[in-house]
Queue: 2 jobs
Job 1
Amino acid sequence: MFCADLKGQGQLDRVLGVTFSEFGRRVAENTNAGTDHGTANIMFAFGGRVKAGLYGTAPNLDNLDQLGDLVYETDFRQVYAGVLQGWMNVDPERVLQGKFEPISLVTA
């Protein structure tokens, strides 16, 4: 609904939203039939200039770390680097204090 409202107002190309959660979920079920905090998670991006699609691959449920958590493939700072570079026109290395290969998820 939010995106539809932005589009209806002609503002969708002026907005970029990115969601991120600081924790993922464990693969194994806990004693309460739920899952505990884990690693590796997904991010969502929306806006009129977002290049639609999936980036990365599905997690390998057979490749877990020593704690039983998923092993992440893409560092979230790569997404941030893409936003900083492609949307905000700033040097991602300066902001992130390191080099992270930007994921190009917005159009010019």
Job 2
Amino acid sequence: MTPTVALYGGSFNPPHVAHVMATRHVLTEEQVDQVWWMPVHQHAFDDKQGNVAFHHRVAMCELATADFGERVRVSTIEAELPGRNRTIDTLDALEERHPDTRFRLVIGADVFRESHLWKSFDELGRRAPFIVLGRAGHSVPPPWTACPDLPDIRSSHIRQRLEQGETAIEEIPPTVGQYIHTHHLYAEGTS
């Protein structure tokens, strides 16, 4: 039987509880065997100067997903590909490495408003049918449907709070919070 893997990409800078909730939704409501979190190595649309080092984001993703066991893994493929790759390029590489796997792509409903910026967006939806996460204020064009809206938690707001010295932030998993504290991430002047 061909396994189905849901690809969940993002900056994960830092990963937060809405990422975990989205993963739980995909695992329980969609016909998938695994979810692979794929932290972005070099963002295609901008430089994301606020990103902490890739290895830190991978480590935080591993901590955030640890409770899922074998059903979730963190992929470093985006760091293994040359340059500033696009999602379709990542899919090409994954299909080449895992020819007996069926892929789906987890996206937020807000992505449709910027789909014109994506390389081969329609082809991507055909080859890795979208699993759409609901976002307040964003509709989804047919034939796609979205899950109920997830909480509006943003990594950028979490980073701002951390930069201001706040430490007890309930929107991040406790293990991620401890990692951030131990490695002095997001404090003003660090990366």
